[in-house]
Amino acid sequence: MLQSTQHARGESPVAVIGAGIAGAWQALTFAKAGHAVTLHERSDSAMTAATSHWAGGMLAPWCEAEVSEPVVSRLGVRALDLWRGELPDTPFNGSLVVAHARDRADYERFASMTSGHTRLDAQKLAEIEPSLEGRFRDALFYPGEGHVEPRLVLPQLHARIKAAGGTIHYNSERQPDDLDGTVIDCRGLFARDRQPQLRGVKGEIIIVETDEVQLSRPIRLMHPRWPLYVIPRDGNRFMLGATSIESEDRGVSVRSALELLGAAYAVHPAFAEARILEFGAGLRPAFPDNLPRIAIDQNRIAVNGLYRHGFLLAPALAELTLAYVQRGVIDNEVMQCA
Ligand SMILES: Cc1cc2nc3c(=O)[nH]c(=O)nc-3n(C[C@H](O)[C@H](O)[C@H](O)COP(=O)(O)OP(=O)(O)OC[C@H]3O[C@@H](n4cnc5c(N)ncnc54)[C@H](O)[C@@H]3O)c2cc1C
Q1: Closest ligand 1 atom, CA of 312?
Q2: Cβ atoms within 10 Å, residue 207
Q3: Fold of 2-64+149-197+288-337
Q4: Of 15, 63, 103, 217, which is most buried, counting CB atoms within 10 Å of its CB?
């Protein structure tokens, strides 16, 4: 039924390679726009080899402005609407940034480099996040931000692709030249055969479980080396993340584990009794400027370099790709034409 609608609308078939967050949003956006979409993923539906499997899933364009260019904020703010439209249950409870006294200067610098926040005193902080009562003297609150749980949201997006008439082939390794018609290459770090400038930036995480702490939103803790955070997950679980290391080794070092666990303990001492469920690391696909890119070479389109913003940016990048394919619209900030 949907197939015939697609033919009636006359949209060209599209093949997408890679079912991580970039490819999932591309496939979904094109399928909903009436294209016959086939998505190829070389791993199985558990997607454990994808960087997306390891992500925090924060949708945080205002906080991320501290470390990224304005284009990330522009596309990120747009993407929030696209997430809301597609998955209305996405939690948009905002994010909090807190600091201990010794990191006060970093906290003030973070506040001055970002917008979209209000300052909460200790009492207001305790009102919105009771577990943090008495823990910090104040906090920065970014009310417009959201977060998703990557390991839940990827299967949800895959199901929506199928519901929109798309086809997904798992255990299907493909190269862009194997396929006819319009091909959208979302292979992440595995696309270095065509995009050799890509590098992996390691992010280590720990997942813990405790019913002693309840949080409704990501808590970022100022830290001299990298922004550490605690993100609530389903089932009394919390993700502690994430380092940012110029390395493609996938192990978790003792030092990183100590820092991640120390950050959780600093947010709330009850984390000391939490059960450790998982250590892991993902490699963020990044270009030298750490900016996302839609590289167009006739009907071969590569969407990559999502770095630390894949969940934030993927919907907006898919919208841009669709506008290019359907109407030839070029976004000069992210598109590169061969
Ligand atoms: C620890 C950590 C925390 C993060 N936190 C956040 C966050 O809070 N918010 C945020 O927005 N971003 C976050 N990120 C960044 C985000 O995870 C990445 O930007 C994003 O996952 C990149 O997605 P991708 O689809 O480009 O790549 P991937 O997720 O790696 O997907 C690529 C897919 O392509 C498949 N593939 C490869 N080659 C082939 C082939 N030849 N044929 C078929 N399939 C193939 C792979 O199997 C893989 O499934 C985080 C990253 C890490 C590591």
Answers
A1: 11
A2: 19
A3: FAD/NAD(P)-binding domain (3.50.50)
A4: 63
